[in-house]
Structures
1.
Amino acid sequence: MKADLFDQRRLLELQAVDTTLSQLGQRRRKLDADPAFAAANQRLSALTDKAANLGGDLADLDRDIERVEREVELVTKRAENDRARMASGAATAKELEGLQSELESLARRQGTLEDDQLELMERREALETELNETRRQVEEARQVLADAEADRGRRLGEIDTETAEATSTREALAINIPDRLVELYERIHAKQPIAAAELVGRRCGSCRIEKSPADMIPIKSAPIDEVLRCEECGCVLIRTELPQSKPSTLASEDELKKYQ
Ligand SMILES: [Zn+2]
């Protein structure tokens, strides 16, 4: 394929924009997979679970406390009834003995229940403190995540803006390059990220492989408007060390010496 060297060189500008677009894509993927974001999400989820569990434990404990309170009420009421019966003077001696023994037993039971109550209240207090602290941490984690989300949104917005700019630059560039050359570039670009690279000395700017002096012979002897391809990586090899105003003829010996 033949194309004006000036047009060929425009492929390098197109390549630069495509490289920018590819970097923008990488930045976007990196943001999507940001470990800090995942960690903030995970922390919030773990703390929310912990708060829910503590809330459940607290509800269980409240039920236990209520149960003990009801039992204390029953024991108190039973003791009151027993004492009333004893004070009524209607009870027989045997009954009085029985009532006395029951009152002693009820007093022991009440003592145990009150110990339980105290222990439960202490546990409740500790649990409530832990739950309040966990709820505070949940709010904190929620804020960290919201900040991370806002930051990601802002960065994605920047990427969107830069992508739109690069895309319009690309369109403007492609319009000014002959269609056949753009088509060739696009075909190569579909297969590999670098479709056009500069020939620097004997080195391909894409694969970085240095051409042997023998490989340089056809390159050196190629007409200036010949579209060259790197035999190693397949990209369009652009000669930038030749003068831009060079007409579409064989390069002079002096100019070709620069490649050696
Ligand atoms: Zn190459």
2.
Amino acid sequence: MKNNSNKASTYWDNFHKDIKGYGAFRPDPVLSRYLKLISKGKVLDLGLGEGRNALFFAKNGFEVKGIDISETAIQSCIKRAKEAKLEIDVKLQNIRDLDIPENTYSLIIATMVLQFLNKKERDIIFKKIKKGLKENGIFFMRVFSLQDPSYKIKLESDKIEMIEHDTFFLKKRNMCIHYFSEKEVKFIFKDFQIINFSEIYSLDLAHGEPHYHGMIMCMGKKI
Ligand SMILES: C[S@@+](CC[C@H](N)C(=O)[O-])C[C@H]1O[C@@H](n2cnc3c(N)ncnc32)[C@H](O)[C@@H]1O
């Protein structure tokens, strides 16, 4: 099975240099909507980017740790934390190498990142996430769905290899990309009480030419 090498971090460094302020520095709307439900404590943000979610939780009194493979993203996040006088523990680290201490977090966030792992890697991190949450801890993820227009383009391309079910290998970026179905996401959350499940198809004006994305967001409480 093809594995993503660390060279993918070059792609993400360029991504963050090109798109300063991904997500317009606003926290994910699902996270801000359900802030009340998250008991005060530790938050882990996987692939935190420039920290739009991590900084939101730091500002709201949580003890936040975040990891990312992009040095550019990390530096931007640290700068923003300093400017806002917020403390946050940020590390340059690959999700694949992360050990999550058991029974520790009130909230684990993974927005727009888990689709870049292959099946085996996803299975491993989902297990770690579940163990890493405290009782009643919350997991939130946002991922690309099968409705994303790029799924169909990849499916029909004879240059892009499908390496696993609904997972493609992007040679230029040296990474894979997976598109999730509703059934698959609900299976991941089978041991959680689902707080919010939503699937959207919407126009993205945040970077490049206006384009559409299909995404699934799911938030669940560990039971
Ligand atoms: C589309 S951005 C989303 C950033 C952030 N989660 C947000 O919603 O604003 C994807 C982020 O995941 C990071 N990333 C991708 N693969 C990763 C991996 N294997 N381990 C850690 N971070 C990763 C990238 O560097 C990038 O910052």
